[in-house]
């Protein structure tokens, strides 16, 4: 899902084509906004004059809606504020593959304290983290405390949702700016996307622990995502980032795919895979003949 501000100050939201789950969730956002519009219209109709004055609400520490946060120190401070105020649940999405050991160690202490206080926690990683030893050790530790961790081949951008009341998402590709969202309808929308991704995800395995043994479970899903992104014409750098792979690992997967399809170069590989994908789709849609 992408969004852009138009000249008149409104926000246009673009959904992935053919994604009924996202459209269903957005429809509920639209219904909530429609209810608000009708309530305002009804109040205006009952007012003695054209001007409707509503009592000033008491604002929380952060105004409800959207707040732009610039700079990594400020983003980390906002995250800490959210974690300090959590009472029941933390949902996090951590794409881009393995995370630095120092980051994992710091997160481990915070997670332990929150779970000990009765907070539930669920985290989504990408399949590529199953081959990273520090991440495996971190997951082993947090799950022993009571957290839940699952993985997907591909996932949307980084996100944290606290108590279904606030969400923090990146505002640029470098993640040096972020948006704090406290508008209930939008937080609900993001939580719904998380839940649907969670349902599709696989539990993080601990046995077998060797990467070579874990590979058969996740490599087909990773290769499937690589095929789709190659057919779409994505660059190696973009595919690697979206799947949480190093560029070298991605190029090794692409080399295997070229060998499998008999392609001499990357462009031919995308073309051949596109032909095969189109033919398979045609066979599935063709009616049975007597």
From TrEMBL:
Gene3D superfamilies: Endonuclease Chain A (3.30.870.10), Winged helix-like DNA-binding domain superfamily/Winged helix DNA-binding domain (1.10.10.10)
Superkingdom of this protein's organism: Bacteria
UniProt cross-references to InterPro entries, sorted A to Z: Sig_transdc_resp-reg_C-effctor (IPR016032), TrmB-like (IPR051797), WH-like_DNA-bd_sf (IPR036388)
Entry's transmembrane regions: none
Protein name: LuxR family transcriptional regulator
């Amino acid at each position: 899902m992408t969004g852009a501000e138009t000249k008149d100050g409104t926000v246009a939201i673009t959904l992935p084509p053919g994604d009924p789950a996202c459209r269903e969730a957005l429809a509920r956002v639209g219904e909530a906004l429609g209810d608000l519009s009708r309530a305002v219209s009804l109040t205006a109709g009952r007012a003695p004059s054209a001007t409707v004055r509503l009592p000033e609400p008491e604002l929380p520490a952060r105004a409800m809606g959207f707040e732009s946060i610039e700079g990594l120190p400020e983003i980390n401070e906002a995250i800490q504020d959210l974690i300090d105020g959590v009472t029941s649940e933390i949902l996090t999405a951590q794409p881009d593959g393995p995370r630095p050991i120092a980051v994992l160690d710091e997160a481990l202490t915070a997670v332990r304290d929150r779970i000990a206080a009765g907070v539930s926690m669920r985290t989504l990683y990408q399949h590529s983290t199953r081959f990273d030893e520090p991440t495996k050790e971190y997951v082993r530790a947090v799950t022993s405390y009571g957290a839940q961790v699952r993985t997907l081949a591909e996932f949307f951008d980084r996100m944290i949702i606290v108590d279904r009341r606030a969400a923090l998402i990146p505002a640029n590709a470098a993640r040096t700016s972020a948006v704090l969202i406290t508008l209930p309808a939008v937080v609900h929308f993001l939580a719904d996307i998380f839940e649907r991704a969670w349902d599709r995800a696989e539990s993080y395995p601990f046995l077998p622990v060797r990467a070579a043994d874990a590979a058969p479970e996740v490599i087909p899903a990773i290769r499937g995502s690589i095929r789709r992104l190659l057919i779409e014409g994505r660059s190696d750098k973009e595919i690697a980032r979206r799947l949480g792979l190093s560029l070298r690992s991605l190029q090794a997967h692409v080399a295997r795919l070229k060998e499998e399809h008999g392609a001499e170069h990357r462009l031919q590989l995308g073309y051949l895979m596109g032909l095969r994908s189109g033919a398979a789709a045609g066979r599935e849609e063709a009616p049975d003949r007597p």
